[in-house]
Amino acid sequence: MIELKQVSKSWDGGQSFAVKELSLKVEDGAVLALLGRSGCGKSTTVKMINRLVDPTEGEILVDGVNVMQQDPVALRRKIGYVFQGIGLFPHMTVLENVGIIPRITGEESAAYRKKADELLDLVHLPAQEFAARMPEQLSGGQRQRVGFARALAADPSVMLLDEPFGALDPVTRDSLQTEFKSLQRKLGFTAVMVTHDMAEALLLADQIAVMKEGLLVRIGTPAELLADPGNDYVAALLETPRRHVQLLRNLENRNA
Ligand SMILES: Nc1ncnc2c1ncn2[C@@H]1O[C@H](COP(=O)(O)OP(=O)(O)OP(=O)(O)O)[C@@H](O)[C@H]1O
Ligand SMILES: [Mg+2]
């Protein structure tokens, strides 16, 4: 379980807050989507969970333990972290990228290789074909899969995903979303996923938390938000997927 209690973050010594008195809980095995406009504090929130950023105030508990009482490096090895655009080591092969955490935590070469092979299979990148490639020899979607596999290598009970599907084409995005959901069900990890896309949040999340200027303005299940957005900001975010559905229906009707 992940629990945030009255968490605030100021970058300027308390004059303004990127995140303000944020409290929420993510139950074991649940997926929480964090949604809101650019700059509202989503990435800052996620980074406070694995201590890439330390909160100014409040408490964050992962599996009941305050993250501030844990060694940041050990904590980050335990928590899977996937973010868009980064982060494969360009001078390492796919296999080395996926195996990096088991390797630095001292697993035997044969053991980490086997594990990396299995993880590559899991994300549908057969080791035979992909293990020896360099990141630059992969498509964006394939890189993203390697990023997933690497995050899964530490058998994390918690995964943090910051716009993991952001820059992918719609078809690749759709298939990775589906795979993410089935992996999450199979492996049972707890996840916090940042997204700009309300449709994605509705499809993948058990709970949706909407932020605005550092504040939590609404939290609920997809069904709860759809039934009652609670305020205009959330209503506006729900409008986009609704409009898309409506446009498609209109087109279908016209062509029928
Ligand atoms: N290292 C930093 N130093 C100073 N200010 C920062 C730092 N990181 C983020 N901020 C500020 O904190 C606020 C929240 O940023 P954050 O990255 O959390 O937004 P976000 O919701 O993830 O936005 P986006 O959707 O664009 O990724 C912004 O005003 C940003 O400029
Ligand atoms: Mg961000």
Provide a short characterization of the protein structure:
This protein is of the alpha/beta class and 256 residues long.
Walk me through the topology:
Layout (H helix, E strand, L loop, with lengths): L1 E8 L9 E8 L4 E5 L6 H8 L7 E6 L2 E2 L5 H7 E5 L10 H5 L1 H5 L4 H14 L4 H4 L9 H13 L5 E5 L7 H18 L2 E6 L2 H7 L2 E6 L2 E6 L1 H6 L4 H24 L1
Parallel strand pairs: 3-8, 3-9, 6-7, 7-8
Antiparallel strand pairs: 1-2, 1-4, 4-5, 9-10
Helix pairs in contact: 5-7
Bound molecules: adenosine-5'-triphosphate and magnesium ion.
| Distinct compounds present | adenosine-5'-triphosphate, magnesium ion
- What would you call the shape? globular
> What do we call the CATH homologous superfamily?
P-loop containing nucleotide triphosphate hydrolases
Secondary structure class reads alpha/beta
What's the helix-strand series?
EEEHEEHEHHHHHEHEHEEHH
Enumerate the strands of the largest sheet in spatial order, edge to edge or round the barrel.
6-7-8-3-9-10
Structurally, the number of domains stands at: 1
Helix content: 40-55%
Q: Taking all residues together, what is the mean pLDDT?
A: 91
What does this structure look like?
The protein is of the alpha/beta class. The protein has one domain (2-85, 158-255): 3-Layer(aba) Sandwich (Rossmann fold), CATH 3.40.50. The chain is built from eleven helices and ten strands. 43% of the residues lie in helices and 22% in strands. Helix 8 (170-187) links the parallel strand 7 and strand 8. The strands form two sheets. A six-stranded mixed beta sheet has the order 6-7-8-3-9-10, sandwiched between helices. Helix 5 crosses helix 7 (140-152). The longest helix has 24 residues, at 232-255. Magnesium ion (MG) binds at residues 42-43, 162.
